[in-house]
Write a structure and sequence with these properties.
With 49 residues, this protein is an all-beta fold. It is built from no helices and 5 strands. A 5-stranded antiparallel β-sheet has the order 1-2-3-4-5, with no helix packed on it. InterPro entries: Atu4866-like_sf (IPR038646), Uncharacterised_Atu4866 (IPR020955).
Length: 49
């Protein structure tokens, strides 16, 4: 859940090259980039488990 909004876990995503875009059901857009095996998004770095 993002900020208490359950529907932000639902929506669409698309991958183009190293980039990923997200659009949730509330209209929130976000973008990320895959670099070195990690997802970089909004000053965060997500690594595989």
């Amino acid at each position: 859940m993002h900020g208490g909004w359950p529907s932000t876990c639902q929506g669409r995503y698309w991958i183009t090259g190293n980039g990923i875009g997200y659009l949730d059901d509330l209209g929130f857009w976000a973008f990320g980039e895959f670099r070195g095996g990690c997802l970089h998004h909004a000053r965060h770095r997500f690594t595989p488990c």
